[in-house]
Design brief:
tRNA processing (chains A, B, C, D); magnesium (chains A, B, C, D); globular; magnesium ion binding (chains A, B, C, D); homotetramer
Chain lengths: 288, 288, 288, 288
């Protein structure tokens, strides 16, 4: 019984390769997490366990997919970045997105009990959706990352104030919302400080900055590398010899994957970690 | 701190809506399942626990996404079908694919211990990738389904014979492969019967036919509905009044989701279940 | 001097094949034709020479691209339809669109002096843009065609009344526009008749119905063919033997390409010309 | 008679915007120009009239679409480049391609008699197809342009030698082809010189280099601009104030559009004409 009669249906599969030589960002988002966070009693405005679980799942994704150079997470979303020369899965969008979403979900569910030790998961289970976006230049990519971190800041300042008004100020949700209508950042800082003696600057970095995950090497002196120029000259999808690729792979496998809560908007973060943009592994720190 | 300076990066998101009025099939596949099945000692040629787990995860997907009208699974793959008038997530490919992949993965990991009671999951965890394909006509859709079921048959007959030669005939993998080179279906049936007294027809239906999942209503007499004509006349993405949609939704929620191992190539399966193509719920069977 | 160093740039060409088994409509539109028609003194509301030139160019397109089964034109736009099994240029959108636009433009410019005998073309020259759209079912395709013909009717009734108010009624454009604000079809018919003794039904068919171009064969009795069912069963892009294709090609070459001004909304037009949907040539009329 | 019943068909139009912040190249090619050039007796290996006509049509395209910054033509093909910040037609691929193809064709047909004074066009008329490709970086774009010019060189050296063997050496096509099999550039130069006393270097530049069309301003000293860095920092599709855009538009309108036959592979061409990449008009030369 040959299958040839029906095989024509494969012709309907349409190609979805992403434009070469562009930075690929896959962003995933929790589906219905407002409801989900209520069901499991997430602390407000931030639940440290939930963020740590997100970070653990993201770190596992980076570990299983070494082509990812950096990831940034906030709340129930995570962005994963592939360097522009990456050719994983021939850059097919659905393959890249579905693999990341599936791997992330697997770890989120699997690791749940390590972070929420007292409440087992029950249906409907947590799930995530995702999409891929191409950014042609380093500036575009960095602006994307900045956009997410600014969003983190705006939302966290709002939520911190909103929940202070409720938890410490005795307001209900409607009153808190009303109080914050039309306020600027400075106003919210002021409310926090004057009413509740909270200095927003002293809030945990993970809440204020979100989480950035990357392979860690020795920091370099700013100004000693011109990564931008070097990277923009890279024209072709793959430019490496196989032996170089093999060496890089080993170096990457050795590098620790770290989770930090740093400012990724300013140049300093990128200047001192040229490997994030160049895709060339840095120096493994000597053990001491 | 406004976010407007960076928000331009949203312009790089490119639309990926699937063509209206076409059947959408999302097929997911296990990533690296050869290695995975070895790690967890899956029985060969078929592991009943593994198939039951796949089916349980797929049933959960159908339960959480009522827009799916039918699903078909074999081995480590599953195909989910959305009726051509479906407008879920505005038919955005990445959203449809990632949601299905994520939900499936979540249940697969979560339900693992119910089916593999003695071996807990450990990293690297199982994951799946997926893609969406549009089929313009009922004939195309049915040919797609037939393609998968014929594939199931071809692979299962081969694997059953291959593993019989090894497990019962004492061959190693190379010898078994060599024995089967160039053989036709009839030859494999003959090998099974003459050497091992196995009548392939008596093998379990779940292995021979795969699994089909759908909402179950009362079967209709073949020939009383002309679904094809009716469905092809449906031209617009949405044609229902809201109240009708609401009624249908309730009916669907009441219908049991069943897992069967039937021939989905022949007309009979479709003729007796017009709701699978028409997207109009059938009659809920009376309790007896 | 090998070219291999630069050839990698070909990788950036992204595929744009249109979904198989769908009707492809390429619609072209005149660019800036309001200005253009003023420059060459087109008669208002309709310029017969301009429409005849559009039709002549469209007929030439159909003659050079026999895969087109029907075309419909109104004002400065034309729609060309490829049967759903068509595989011309591997269904690449840019190739289909650019070829039609280019061929149409070539004939429009070349034939200009045959229709506008007294005014030669001068820069800026007339040009057209185009796009391709896929329609999965016959109903969708016919609704597309109906949409264009209804548009023709609506615009022509409006324009006929508008210009009557100006040319015969002595109004200026603003007054005419004001008079027609909020009027229905019946009102416009009434204005034409009561004020100017114009019976809209007696207006030339080419103005009221637009122009439809197709290969002509002997009409069939309505009800003797069930083209819809037959066509919907066609599942694969190509189903013909080469010899059959060759025969069909010859028959098509013999069939006269006609320009008519018929109602293409009602079933009758399609029922009597089954070849338009089936892509099977009809009977060449016997000469008498 | 409202058109709403059919208007749903507009939903089937799928978006085709090109990725922002990438260089857009629209390349058009003559359809069936081997046959066409025979029909009109084009001189071999190059017909100066035919090339001049191509250049005249391309110049007209650039004049009507000021968003095009540079164009490069060889034989029956032409490439038109839009700067990466260009937002013409919202970057819709089909609109960009069809407009260029149509405008080019219109001028090609219209200007035919100015270049081929003795042979009027007759059906089938010349036509062109086209496609759009995105290049993310300056390096990619320049490599694309280099690819076309190297192709021009390779083909022209081959054709010059091939036709010398036929026209001067008395060979037939098969013999000439056979003679050139496996030869390198140096061999062909040698054949031309030793057999026919032709120094390939002295061939006309238009044949050897192809034609490049651009707006001309005062050349700048190489090294005084770092256009690459400046351009790569441009992140957003539009960055100009309206008044600046207006000024630039006027400057562009004043700049002469020139047709040259220069080396566009080396840096010098681009270094001295920074406006080609930066999209900022240069200095209009003072009249003397």
């Amino acid at each position: 019984m040959a299958n040839s009669k029906f095989e024509y249906v494969k012709q309907f599969e349409q190609p979805d390769q992403l434009l070469p030589n562009t930075w690929v960002v896959v962003r995933i988002d929790g589906r219905g997490f407002t409801k989900f966070s209520t069901k499991y009693g997430f602390e407000k405005p931030n639940d440290k366990r939930a963020l740590d679980l997100m970070n653990a799942a993201a770190r596992a994704v980076m570990s299983e997919l070494p082509d990812i150079t950096i990831a940034y997470g906030v709340s129930d979303e995570y962005s994963f970045v592939f360097q522009k020369s990456c050719t994983l899965f021939e850059r097919r969008a659905s393959k890249l997105v579905s693999t990341i979403v599936s791997t992330f979900t697997a770890y989120y569910v699997h690791l749940w009990t390590s972070y929420f030790t007292d409440i087992p998961l029950s249906p409907p289970l947590p799930s995530f959706d995702g999409r891929a976006v191409c950014y042609p230049s380093i500036q575009n990519l960095r602006d994307y990352m900045s956009w997410r971190q600014v969003d983190c800041h705006i939302n966290n300042l709002y939520n911190t104030t909103f929940w202070a008004l409720i938890q410490l100020g005795g307001m209900d949700a409607t009153e808190a919302e009303q109080s914050l209508k039309g306020t600027f950042s400075a106003d919210k800082n002021e409310i926090l400080f004057s009413k509740f003696h909270i200095n927003y600057n002293n809030e945990p970095e993970i809440f204020k900055k979100g989480s950035v995950i990357f392979r860690d090497y020795e920091l370099v002196e700013p100004g000693t590398h011109n990564v931008v120029e070097e990277v923009e000259k890279m024209a072709e999808p793959i430019q490496q010899s196989k032996s170089q690729a093999e060496k890089d792979k080993k170096k990457r496998a050795k590098a620790p994957i770290v989770i930090e809560h740093l400012d990724i908007i300013k140049d300093d973060f990128w200047d001192r970690r040229p490997w994030l943009l160049s895709n060339k592994p840095g120096q493994i720190p000597k053990e001491t």
